[in-house]
Structures are given as structure tokens and as C-alpha cells.
């Protein structure tokens, strides 16, 4: 009897292990690739005939191109926190000048939840934010132990591979970091296949972020190239934009970064950096094929924010205009019937959607705190919709440029709330479907009064969400009042002054 009982237990264990292995085999692997400061017109599949992005273009042809994908905050730290958690910035509590992510929020991020549910995980590149142990707790070490393989780094990381502590083993063969991340991805894929686990590989390229440092092995790609300027290039196309938008470094850098006098040279370096990413993406795809897992691996490619590159006479990002907030997004799911049909989707999507999408791919229910939706619903039906509107946030930089905006598939409404120092709160309204370069502000046009009112209502709803859901720390709550367009500036100016004073006190304390 005992012998038979032992045999039954052993048989049951084998069956359980077999079922678990079968379940893992059905789960797709996930590769999430994210560049830094990449505008849509840096890729051939988005219509730029001046650039070379063969691997990304092939990925786009195989999968689905998203033409209306937005980052909800167009600056590195806050954007990366949103990508990881699927939440708007005012719920992550994470940005420059505000604070680091709390451990309790990090524990609900997609890498943590995937790993808890049987995925082998890896991260390489620019992590972008720190994690702190509670509101009053100090910063924790980088979360290298929260991944099965770690190639990440603090803050901005470095283009020189040898300077990135976690990546030094790749420095000799790949002295420039972009290709080192491709090699890291290859090694992780090989190891994961050997381990027999579904995996999630996340690579966050530093390129093409400033300081512009391209891999010299690609110096010939754009040598002597003359680039076509976008239709809204230059200061003459900023005359209709708010004065608030011209008060920070985005306006100054058009000249200081050389877009005004050395456009082709600056853009050659920028596009060369993107070309390096393209090569690294090719390395990862090749390894998926050689390891025999390409048919069960979903690839997502995007950027943490866009980049102006001289549009409207601006440089850098942050502001809520298209070049800064609308970014590339390609998804390729080799298992899906729509793959290989060279399809595009004009549905509105956002950076809040990545975490719930990856969890859905793994068969994991997204936590209620996440604001995003499953992008694969659009992959199944490119004409479907998952968002009526999305909020675009900036609470970084000078007070005048801080604003809240809402975007729909066709329209964008920007409310510049700052009314101090002689400024007047200002509205901007753009019909993106007819005016993709945001050349004409329709806010004062009586013919568009109904649309303005509709967008105002969506904006008011976004402000209400902020008031109800913003974290009670890291200086986020008061923006629910500052962005309220139904209040006069005189009713909220004191909040702006209080915020400035508290910042000055904090600086003195640091010194």
C-alpha cells in the first residue's frame, strides 16, 4: 500500500510539473524595447525617407504601427515611472523636483508582477528613477535583485559601456553602450531558453538622448546628408503658441544646440544614434530566431518621450506639443492573425498602457490602480478604441511652462494655467487630424466653439481625477487647484508661491 501510495504521489507530481511546463510554454515571451528622446520622424516606417531604420521598419511591417501614441509625461524620470506602473505621474509621485518612487508602488510594477507569476526577467540600460522606502524613508539601492539578470544603471547612464558598472563585460567588443544592450539581450534570451521559463526582456536605450554621442562605427551612414526639415520648423511657427511655452530651456536650446545654424550636422548625429538602436534591435531579433522562440515572443518598441528637433523653434521635450509627446510605437505578435499585413492603427494610446498590456499577455490581471488599457485589443482590431482622451502632464521646470492638456484621436486642448508675472492663462486648441503640425490655434475661432467646449469638459474631468487620485506627498496635490480653469488666478496664485518657497528651502537644506 505504501509503495503504491508513493507511486501515486510521484505520478501526481510529474503531472503537476508537466501541466506547469505546458502553461509556461503557452505564455508568450515579451521583449520591451524603449529608446530615449526619439521623435516619430526618425524612422522610415513613420514616413521619413531620409533615414535608415531597416530592422525597425521590418518589425513595423510584420506587426502593427500605432500612429497616435502619446507619453503622458514627456520627460525621462516621470515617463519611465508611468511605463513601469501603468499610472499617471500624479499617482506614481515620481519626477525630477518631486521625489522618487515609493517601494509600495514599485512592487506593483510590471517587472515585479511578471516575476512573481513565473516569468524570468531582465533589465538593461537607463532605469531612470530611484526607489525609496516609504514617504520619509531614504533611497534604496537600484533594484538589481528584483530581476533575474541586471544590466541597468542609475540616472542617465553612460554612452561609454565601460562606465556602466553592470555592463563592463561587454565593453571590449561593444565600447558604445547601444550595441552592448543588444548583446545583453542576446545572452539573456539564450539563458532563458535553456532555463525553460517564459521571459520578459526590458531594454532601455540611452540613445538618442543628449549629450549626442553616436557610435563611430556608423559614421558613414549619414555623412554629408542633407535632411528635409519638418513643415513646422523654425521660430516663425511659434508665433501662435503661448508665451508660457517659451519661458524655459526648450525655447533657448533651438539656438544653443545648433538647430538654427547647423541643422544637418545636429540631425546626422541624432539619426546616427537611432541607427545604432536599429542595429541592436536586429541583434535581439536574430537571437530570438536562432533560439527558436521568435514565434512565441511579442516585441514592443517605443520611446520614453519625443523630441522637438527644431519644430516651432524648440528643442528638447517636456512641452505638450506633438513632437514632444507623440512617439513611435510598434508591436509585433507573431501568433496573431493580423501580423504580416502591414497594418496601422490611428486609435489613441498612451504610455499608461504598457504595464497592463504586458500583464495581459502573461495572463495576469492588472491591478485596479493602473490607468492604462490592453493594447492587444487594438492589435486584434486596429479600428477599435481603448481611450476617449488621455492627459498630458508637465509639472517640471519653470512655473510658467507647467500645464495640463488633454488629447483625443483628433483634437488637443492645452491649458496654460500660469497667470503670474504679467502672464494670462491661455487656451490652445488644435485639430490634429487636419493640422498635425499644430500650425493653427482654434481656441478663439467661433466655428470651433462646440469642439472647444467638449475638450474643456474632458479637461475638467482630468482635473477632477487629479484632485481625487493624486498622491498626498511629493508636492502633487496642489496642482489639482492650480490647473483648475474655473478658478481665477488670484484664487490660486498663493499655491504657486508656496511651492516655490518650499523648493528654495529644500535647496538650502541640501547645501
Structure commentary:
With 511 residues, the chain is an alpha/beta fold. An eight-stranded mixed beta sheet has the order 6-4-7-1-8-9-2-10, sandwiched between helices. Strands 11-12-13-14 form a four-stranded antiparallel beta sheet, covered by helices on one side. β11 and β12 form a beta hairpin. α7 packs parallel to α9. The protein is globular, with a radius of gyration of 23 Å. It starts with a helix and ends with a helix. The C terminus is likely disordered.
- What's the helix count? 15
* Overall residue-averaged pLDDT value: 93
The count of strands amounts to 14
Task: Report the biggest beta sheet as strand number plus sense, adding barrel if it closes.
Answer: 8 strands, mixed
Percent in strands: 15-25%
Q: How far is the N terminus from the C terminus?
A: 76 Å
> What is the global morphology?
globular
Order of helices and strands: HEHEHHEHHEEEHEHHEHEEHHEEEEHHH
Strand arrangement in the largest pleated sheet: 6-4-7-1-8-9-2-10
- Rg, alpha carbons: 23 Å
Poorly predicted residue ranges: 9-24, 498-511
The structural class is alpha/beta
Q: Which quaternary structure do these chains form? A: single chain
What proportion of the residues is helical, as a percent range?
25-40%
